[in-house]
Design goal:
Two copies of one chain form a homodimer.
Chain A lengths: L2 E7 L9 H13 L4 E6 L7 H10 L4 E6 L6 H17 L4 E4 L7 H14 L2
Parallel strand pairs in A: 1-2, 1-3, 3-4
Chain lengths: 122, 122
């Protein structure tokens, strides 16, 4: 089994927007040396999710975990991502594709965000 | 001095999107009993930032910290929020208004997101 972790983010026009996502990718890759960790975007930035999956499958990956790096679960996670995942599963029926919940819903992330809010008050 | 912490988020069409932001507001409020903690949105959801500040000033608040609950710093934080803050400062010259960096750039939040990514791989 060859695994990959895809950090799925929205994308933006400003290149600077991607910086924390790139740091997250690098930090996760350092913790997961046996797993390919990569970023993919919904819109405005490249690579997009389908092209990312195509490339991973070409590399021999057969197990992909997608983590939505979104704070809340709006239309992008309730509709767009399920549609993308369904198309990928139809194209690659032997690929194992798991989709996690929004990173912003995680209790650990919530706790860290709360700490930041408290500290921001000075 | 009467202080408020405003958690500034993007907004979305799906009401479910706001759930983690509401939990964050409640958790921060529990940690900051002497400070008014409230949510404000850039678009698609109410209340917007200017109306939120108007209401806080009416209540006697004279010191507001804004925490952008955004993962990255794109156009919304590089242009939209500074414009909103400039208009607020022009309208209320005696109000102290501080704007923090994007919550997703915080090292503690980054560490928690990294943990979530590692755990998501199972």
């Amino acid at each position: 089994m060859t695994r990959a972790l895809v950090l799925f983010a929205h994308g933006a026009r400003a290149a600077s927007w991607a910086a924390p996502f790139e740091r997250l990718r690098d930090a996760a890759q350092a913790r997961l040396p046996d797993c390919r960790v990569t970023l993919a975007f919904l819109e405005l930035m490249e690579p997009r999710l389908p092209a990312t999956v195509d490339a991973l499958v070409q590399e021999g990956v057969d197990d992909i975990s997608v983590v939505p790096v979104f704070l809340g679960q709006g239309g992008h996670l309730l509709r767009d991502l399920p549609e993308l995942a369904a198309a990928i599963r139809a194209q690659y029926p032997h690929l194992r594709l798991q989709v996690a919940g929004a990173i912003g819903e995680d209790p650990g992330v919530q706790a860290a965000m709360t700490e930041y809010c408290v500290r921001s008050l000075g």
